[in-house]
Amino acid sequence: MESVGIASIIIILITIVTSYRGFKDYALIKAYAFDVDGILVRKEYNRIISSGFLHTGVWHLGFNMITLYLFGDNIENTLGIFPFLLIYFLSLIGGSLFSLYIHRNHGDYTAVGASGAVSGIIFAAIALIPSMKLGLLFLPPELSLPAWAFGLVYVIYTIFGIKTGHGNIGHAAHLGGGIVGMIVALIFQPSAIATNAFPILCILIPSVVFLFLLFVKPALLLVDHPFNKTKGYQTIEDKYYEKKRAKEYELDDLLDKINRSGINSLSKEEKDRLDELSN
Fold first, then answer.
1. Which of 10, 22, 115, 162 is the most exposed place for a label (fewest CB within 10 A)?
2. Are residues 151 and 122 in contact, defined by beta-carbon separation less than 8 angstroms?
3. Quick check: 113 and 170 in contact, CB under 8 A?
4. Are the beta carbons of 16 and 90 closer than 8 angstroms?
5. Do 23 and 37 contact (CB within 8 A), yes or no?
6. pLDDT per position as a tens digit, 20-34
7. Nearest Cα to Cα of residue 183 among 200, 198, 168
């Protein structure tokens, strides 16, 4: 009989407690979030790990922790507690470092969440147990996907997300953490390379090709987003500064409203948004 993943439960409990404190105290988020200037300029390297124990919303926290609970047991029962912890924290570090590389020129870029570490656990499970079925909520079991097929779709979506800046999601941390998790799991159980070669290659080949292009010839990653109203190509830099300008315009609108009618003219939602944009 398989045992409950003790290490998973401990990490989940710690993350829930620290994230809940962050919900109530923005200063905690500001002090321990992933922050490019904080890491590169002020040498606050602890942010690479501490950011993984904070979340900005209940849904974000809940999704990550439920996913960790579902997949963590598989890794702990297959490899043991120490390998599980090593996979989790190395994936967290790997995801943060890859995100740091992607956003190295975006000094005010910040992020929180355990997604990189959780992705590492997911990809480790895919490498070791590729036949595991992954069901979708509210859909019948017949529509569940093999773990390796889910992983391939996830990698393609993540690459698309990195190139286009799709959604307010840390795609870079997901991909970086996922690849690290899979590699570390295979180091602990190298026999899986032979028995699960096809699903592993399905995940690693597109990931490695993308990383090669990103590091060696980033110009090849320029894309013309079909849903973007602007013409021409956009880089990651373009997408970042486009979003930054949008936030600046939103802040200017709120400040103009204060100048015209006073601070009390703002609704509670607008005051909260003003605090968020000002920070």
1. 10
2. yes
3. yes
4. no
5. no
6. 999 888 889 889 999
7. 200
